[in-house]
Design goal:
Metallo-beta-lactamase, Chain A; 288 residues; six-stranded mixed β-sheet; alpha/beta; 24% helix
């Protein structure tokens, strides 16, 4: 065990957790799920959340190798490309099934014909169980689809970063009602990928919604999830979970930043190409 250091950053506007993982001896680091602040009312982008991450990297003189995206988020924009401007050598990595998500949303937003759905916006498309070396850090990719088809969890030493697959035990699991989401697939991802890891494996979640106003929590263990997760314990059957998840998801509202987030995040944090006035636009399809 290399005794990795993990620092969290919480964006209260979207309940999102960003992590910086680093080796204190070598200062090699990776950034997981960074946020680009967006105010939908004014359609203004700002960098307060990212600035805290950059300040931390600079303070400790860390060497970030990768931005690791657990999936194409539907609730916040990724600041990965802004980070690349500061650290030109950094690479943005995501599971290779992002291609499926790009193809799903291409017709939803009627994207331009030259929108590439072969993942070229990302630097690295990861395969299931692929090992990525970030200096002295070794990162194992575990595909954990269900919330979206392209969700991945990342195992670094004894720490698993689960994206939206699973939350703190009192919050349950990710929703499965996005296009190509699947409660069946999420059950398998959690029970066959996450719950088969040692019980002592630390779990770091991508969101904490602080039920009943409790304080922020973001770290648990596989053993605690198996014992206490309110939606999917070790002895929960697939039938029970799928029925619960489908019923629960029908009552959920769409994330506030769903439409702009998806359009930016399937582009790896790139804005759409500016139009002839030099301004980038996102599309908001109207439904009747």
């Amino acid at each position: 065990m290399k005794n990795i250091q993990i620092q969290h950053f919480f964006d209260s506007a979207t309940s999102t957790l960003t992590y910086v993982v680093h080796d204190p001896k070598t200062r090699d680091a990776v950034i997981i799920d960074p946020v680009w602040d967006y105010d939908p009312g004014s359609s203004k982008l700002s960098t307060g959340s990212m600035d805290k991450v950059i300040s931390y990297l600079n303070e400790l003189q860390l060497k970030p190798h990768f931005v690791m995206e657990t999936h194409a988020h539907a609730d916040h924009l990724s600041s990965s490309q802004l980070i690349k401007k500061i650290y030109p050598e950094i690479k943005v990595a995501i599971g290779e099934r992002i291609l499926e998500v790009q193809r799903l949303f291409n017709p939803v937003f009627n994207l331009t014909k030259d929108f590439n759905t072969f993942g070229v916006h990302f630097d690295i498309l990861l395969k299931d169980e692929e090992i990525l070396q970030a200096g002295s850090l070794k990162i194992k990719t575990l595909f954990t689809p269900g919330h979206t088809p392209a969700c991945s969890s990342y195992l670094i030493e004894d720490a698993l970063f689960t994206g939206d697959a699973i939350f703190m035990p009192d919050s349950g699991t990710g929703r499965c009602d996005f296009p190509a989401g699947s409660a069946d697939a999420l059950f398998d991802s959690i029970t066959k990928r996450i719950y088969t890891l040692p019980d002592t494996t630390r779990v770091f979640v991508c969101h904490d919604y602080q039920p009943e106003g409790r304080e922020l929590k973001f770290q648990t263990t596989v053993g605690e999830e198996k014992e206490k997760n309110i939606q999917l314990k070790e002895d929960t059957t697939k039938e029970e979970f799928v029925a619960f998840r489908k019923n629960r998801d029908t009552a959920l509202s769409a994330p506030k930043l769903l439409l702009p987030s998806i359009q930016i995040n399937i582009r790896a944090g790139h804005l759409p190409e500016p139009e002839d006035n030099g301004v980038s636009y996102v599309k908001l399809p109207l439904r009747q």
